[in-house]
Amino acid sequence: MAVKRRKLSNPLALVVLTTLWQKPMHPYEIAQTMRRQGKDTSTRINYGSLYTVMQNLEKHGFVEVADVERQGNRPERTVYGITDAGREEMIHWLSDLMAVPAKEYPIFETALSLMGALPPDEVERLLGERLSSLEVEVAGGRAVLEKLHETLPRLFVVEVEYHLHMLEAQTEWVRGFVRELQDGSLPDVEGWRRFHETGEVPPEFTEVDQQ
Length: 211
Prior knowledge:
Layout: H1 11-22, H2 27-36, H3 50-59, E1 63-69, E2 77-82, H4 84-99, H5 107-114, H6 120-151, H7 158-183, H8 189-198, H9 203-210
Antiparallel strand pairs: 1-2
């Protein structure tokens, strides 16, 4: 089952819809609310593109002008509200993302797919550096999560929990892979090493290319 192709695909649009679902707001208030609720930790939010997102949401009928605020000599501020079509889009979009696994392309996976271009000893060193950074990040994440649990219901910190679990899983995998490089138990590691030392492609690697 694939995620449905939507009129808007920028995750920021979904964050805006869920923010306006709370109450009508002007763009500056939307940005402040997203920041206060920590949405910028789970979604890449470019506040400079917020107005473009608002225009696209209005163009497709997902938001509409609810009011125009005038306060003294300050510039007018347009207040937007979510429409019925916007609520429906928000629910369907969010439901798809929750239910249907989508293939993502983390840059670390890209690096792993290409690491054969580096000597195994160098990969071991680099992954060791990554492991050290991950361990620090995991420790910090646990402390942050404990602090958040003191003041917020779990419902509002589940994305922090998920991120921490993903970091822990990556840390464990990297630790295990580095151990295999160190003790030589990684299959074909010697062929990989000889290739970088002599330039000769091991027969087992050639067989893989021909499959």
